[in-house]
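Human: You know discrete backbone vocabularies at least as well as I do. Show me how you would write down a chain together with its backbone fold. No explanation is needed for now; the record alone will do.

Assistant:
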Amino acid sequence: MNLLELTPSGLYCPQADIFIDPWRPVEKAIITHAHADHSRYGMKHYLAHHHSAEVMKLRLGQDISLETLDYNEPILINGVKISLHPAGHIPGSSQIRLELKGKTVVVSGDYKVEDDGLSAPFEAVKCQEFVSECTFGLPIYKWQAQKEIFDSLNNWWRSNAEKGLNSVVFAYSLGKAQRIINHLDYSIGEVFAHGAIWNTNQALMASGVKVIDIPKVTQEVPKSRFKGALIIAPPSAMGSPWMKKFSPYRTGICSGWMNIRGARRRRAADAGFVLSDHADWEGLISAIKATDAEKVYLTHGSTAVFGRYLEEVEKIQAVELETLFEGENGSETGD
């Protein structure tokens, strides 16, 4: 990667003197999206898509130095043409396109290829070199259509409500939670948000993202209103004293890891819904082939297996990159 090099602080473009999703404090950083493993505290100057702006300020501080761009709005930094393109991962998620003297490299960040109705849909960007995640880079990962998953979730909620049970769904507070909120059947009952999710909703709406504005769980909300309701909470709330106010309840988890047998039992949930904001095996392959890239750099996930497939079957040169990006690993850092 002449345009990019991997340094102890992360991916770096020497010509533009700028990092992409750096792991350590640097002077200038381009941020692919606002999840905590890609958007970190301590950079002197940030550049991101405008839908990420208010969430980044919520998480990193209102006083950060932040410049924002729209998709397909190129800027020139020391001869390097830089533009942001939709990654389809969460609102504001961007692929970073770098061009210099006829050479084009695209850093995809995290992405998915199915249109979730919330984020700008993934856009394939032609390039010679492509930096791709492969969080779910194994053939066992094949997602159902989104409508089928939400039908299943709504039916589970309806069944609980008919039995006099409340429903608590655990989902990442940025991206996954809003995706769920926008696809619920509100004829079933009321929907409430944990404070962390409610705050994120407000920040996204302030940045122009269309999210249904649901009420926040507070001490003032009488317990009677939770009867038959669905409450959306971050994974960190699981098993916490905060949960007592919803008893009796059933719990569900929305995650790509629910694809693995036994994952729901290990997390002590009553139901698991295979809903991921990352591309599955086929999505990764289709996205990479659509770029026409001659070389692909693979980060976090099943890099060895997926890289071998690209080289042996697709005849695309693949290189593993050791990064600190965590992907959808059960924490609040990547979804």
